[in-house]
């Protein structure tokens, strides 16, 4: 039986079309005509032997077989990128100094560092976990090459917002808020989310008291889980035993979203730092990455 070899360019068109919600927009991004992309999809269906797209109103949507193929397409494209990175990174050596907020220690970091280790096996990574404001200061001082931090102002010169995340009120998984001043469990100042949370409560006329504070995110989560108070944070890596509180149900004001920054010490980092920068960027902006698929109190 003759082996069927899927074309990565065709798979890239499929992934782009689904990501952008339009194969016409995918054609623009890829520098092809719409008819060329349509021909690619026809070729892909012929290779698959089943329909992968069907009409839905004025557009197209994936069939069940198309959803399966899209999942493999993304994995094949990622593996292709890793192969290129590993080939180019085989001669790289040295050290990259990376700083990051605690939020990213368990989810994003292992995946990104695993990919970086395969691409650049001879490069050492020195990591520092700290508060976002400190991380940006270290980047500006040249003590870190890269940092993944929340926008706490002022921004490091070579930083870019790579995502905007909702900030939620976070409480224990069960139980109701007691009457009286709202007990809070927040980071010690300076902390932009602490300032925004307290300011929002003041503007809403909701009394509050600081029940717990500290510099460790794990410590704050423990305080919330124990029922000492509620916190304010994004939903990234929200541990078990906690839930997002619905502001309308608890008389809480909405909180402003916050930008996630990827900061560089230099506009053109050395090759190892640039490679890790690109991997982190791809990891955090990949289609299908769900930062907030968590339970919301209702």
UniProtKB/TrEMBL annotation:
Source superkingdom: Bacteria
UniProt entry keywords in alphabetical sequence: DNA-binding, Transcription, Transcription regulation
Domain HTH lysR-type, residue spans: 18-63
Listed InterPro entries: LTTR, LysR_HTH_N, LysR_subst-bd, WH-like_DNA-bd_sf, WH_DNA-bd_sf
Residue ranges of the TM segments: none
Pfam families given in the database record: HTH_1, LysR_substrate
Family to which the UniProt record says this protein belongs: Belongs to the LysR transcriptional regulatory family.
PANTHER family reported in the protein's UniProt record: HTH-TYPE TRANSCRIPTIONAL REGULATOR LRHA-RELATED, TRANSCRIPTIONAL REGULATOR
Protein name per its UniProtKB record: LysR substrate-binding domain-containing protein
Species of origin: Chromobacterium indicum
Taxonomic classification: Bacteria, Pseudomonadati, Pseudomonadota, Betaproteobacteria, Neisseriales
């Amino acid at each position: 039986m003759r082996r069927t070899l899927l074309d990565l360019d065709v798979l890239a068109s499929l992934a782009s079309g689904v990501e952008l919600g339009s194969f016409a927009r995918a054609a623009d991004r890829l520098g092809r005509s719409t008819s060329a992309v349509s021909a690619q999809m026809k070729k892909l269906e012929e290779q698959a032997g089943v329909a992968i797209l069907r009409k839905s109103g004025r557009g197209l949507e994936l069939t069940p077989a198309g959803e399966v193929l899209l999942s493999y397409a993304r994995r094949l494209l990622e593996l292709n990128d890793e192969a290129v990175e590993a080939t180019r990174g085989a001669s790289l050596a040295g050290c990259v100094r990376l700083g990051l907020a605690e939020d990213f220690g368990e989810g994003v970091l292992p995946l990104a560092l695993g990919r970086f280790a395969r691409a650049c096996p001879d490069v050492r990574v020195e990591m520092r976990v700290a508060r976002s404001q400190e991380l940006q200061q270290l980047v500006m001082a040249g003590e870190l090459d890269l940092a993944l931090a929340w926008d706490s102002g002022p921004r490091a010169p070579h930083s870019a917002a790579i995502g905007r995340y909702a900030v939620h009120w976070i409480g224990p998984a069960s139980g109701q808020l007691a009457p009286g001043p709202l007990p809070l469990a927040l980071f010690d100042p300076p902390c932009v989310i602490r300032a925004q949370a307290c300011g929002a409560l003041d503007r809403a006329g909701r009394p509050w008291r600081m029940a717990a504070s500290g510099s460790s995110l794990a410590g704050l989560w423990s305080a919330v889980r124990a029922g000492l108070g509620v916190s304010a944070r994004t939903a990234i890596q929200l541990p078990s035993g906690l839930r997002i509180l619905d502001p309308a149900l608890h008389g809480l004001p909405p909180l402003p979203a916050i930008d996630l920054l990827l900061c560089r010490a230099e506009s053109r980092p050395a090759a190892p730092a640039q490679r890790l920068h690109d991997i982190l960027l791809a990891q955090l902006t990949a289609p299908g990455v769900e930062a907030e698929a968590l339970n919301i109190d209702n």
